[in-house]
């Protein structure tokens, strides 16, 4: 097992279920035998604000927050919030981002506009970037609410973990009656970002 | 035992369970709230929300005097409220162990200041442990009860946001057995703090602290990690983790007990290293005490007193290394601050206050977000309950029209926390101020905890509801009115009339928080906007609802049906009848 710590920064909007996604991810990395730490801020950020969650795993992890400029993967649930946190990405880092725009308050009330070309900017600035059609694939799996599972599937290609552990973690953490649909969503996400 | 990933707060709850705690009490406050939300899952612990932190600690003290181990939890500013019993509890000492878990918030992620609770340890002469991850949060909580009983003192376990809300791997232990059963035991020289008794106890307090400092020099929770470099670091808590990240070769004196300090251990450690750093967040609490021992250290001359530390900030301050930035946004991005939820009952009240050009003495809760544009209707916010006294004070010094503009605004939970005392003052001293109680039937800001108005306890048992109207009348307020906050005209009319009144008045705006789980089924279907009727006048945007989105290309407003809960406030602002219920077209509620 590599000694180096791997850093994954999840970014998105309060209410998108980012905390649950980071729980599943942390659980999988623990099951895989790594030391794991994760951190996020609760409270004000839940009310539609910008949310990040730090997940770190490796042989031994000290800080629960990712040192600035050292995120190996920026794992984004919304385009604007992903673009906002680019400065935390390591030089060799990758971006996986959901194709979704959520309007912040100043845009909703018509004072500012939502930047039109974020997807192109991310692709152009970060060589290793992958945009996932989360909603499309989630609907294909059978439920719009499985978007985050689709995204975890896309992320899973980058992690040194056996697929069985993902199944085990999902079994433990999603409601039993939605398990099959979540497993399908996971596979669709995984296929979407292979190669 | 099976390994688990636990947050610092979950680990404290687990530690309390393993220590045989019988009573746990708290008032919710970020980042401490989840401690009690987890103790309640252990049936052997009687867990409850108190109306404020002072009451929480007093209940904990009662349980401890009865011989049971008790846990009391609060955020840093809660200790200000609980300070009165705390300082004297240090004199009485304990019978069953008492641990006070306090969660500080460096960087003010969700607080009104970033005070450093370690000063309370020193000022109140109460020992303080500081864990650096979840495993230590569990162990130090357990240990806290043993130390509390061994040295006859309450014990602090202090976390910061990054400990409370970080998750790391924990191996739980077995619960202790054989603790004595609670029983009554009279002991006035110890428990009745009249001057004659307290004078004697003060000597005991000082002797115990000295004994604890000496004992702690040889305990595993204060440990020296020797490494290759000539640099030595004294640190504790989350700063220890950042130290290991930034200075992996440095030797470290890692303190588990941050008050009292293990003086001899510090002297022994300091003697070995040419360069000595103290790495700590906020105040130079360890640094100043080490310097007072005649030891030279580098600390707050390089590290900031403000905000939290991060690996990057430490590296910049101590090693002069800039944080690497490889990618930067090329354009200015619209910010995304938190906002009141769609359907929030507070929104209509702040819209009315905005239109009435009121000067709003505000308070602590979700509704503090009423200061944000476009509502822009909060003018002060100091601490829990301050709105009431602030309104009274403003009312005292102003005249005429300005005097009538002053309104205090407070939530139901905050009112019962420390607002009721202010209302007694307002009415007793014949103030003409107006107080609005935003009664959303829950403690919403911290994640919807039950409170004395909500009708349920922490464990979900039904309980009597405080009758706010009767309560206000009983302290002498003659004019108490209730308004429906989703009725914009009605709410505005009631507030306007009461602002003009020359006597103390209270307006209770009653509407449950839209996120209360047991009420989710009562949500209405989303509204929709008829684009043919929408003229693009933007009137509906003045309430700042996240569910209404301006479509710049079409110059029209649009409702995001995934977010809208059909509260209907926007509909009341539309002069063109453009809104209708999606139910007419088969829409369902977002429950």
Describe this entry's structure for a reader.
- The complex is a heterodimer of chains A (195) and B (591).
- Chain A has eight helices and six strands; from the N terminus they run βαβββαβααβαααα.
- By secondary structure, chain A is an alpha/beta fold.
- Chain A has one domain: 3-Layer(aba) Sandwich (Pyruvate-ferredoxin Oxidoreductase, domain 3), CATH 3.40.920.10.
- Chain A has a six-stranded mixed β-sheet, with helices on both faces.
- In chain A, helix 5 packs across helix 8.
- The longest helix of chain A is centred in the N-terminal third of the chain and has 14 residues.
- Chain A is globular.
- By secondary structure, chain B is of the alpha/beta class.
- A seven-stranded mixed β-sheet of chain B has the order 3-2-4-5-7-6-12, sandwiched between helices. A five-stranded parallel β-sheet of chain B has the order 14-15-16-18-17, with helices on both faces.
- The radius of gyration of chain B is 27 Å and the shape is globular.
- The model of chain B has no long low-confidence stretch (mean pLDDT 96).
- At the A-B interface, helix 1, strand 2, helix 2, strand 5 and helix 3 of A face strand 8, helix 10, helix 13 and strand 20 of B.
- Strand 2 of chain A pairs antiparallel with strand 8 of chain B.
Q: How confident is the prediction overall: mean pLDDT of chain B?
A: 96
Oligomeric state: heterodimer
H-E string of chain A? EHEEEHEHHEHHHH
At the fourth CATH level, what is the homologous superfamily of the largest domain in chain B?
Thiamin diphosphate (ThDP)-binding fold, Pyr/PP domains
Radius of gyration based on Cα positions of chain B: 27 Å
Radius of gyration of chain A over alpha carbons? 16 Å
The major sheet of chain B is characterized as:
7 strands, mixed
* Contiguous runs where pLDDT drops below 50 for at least 5 residues of chain A: none
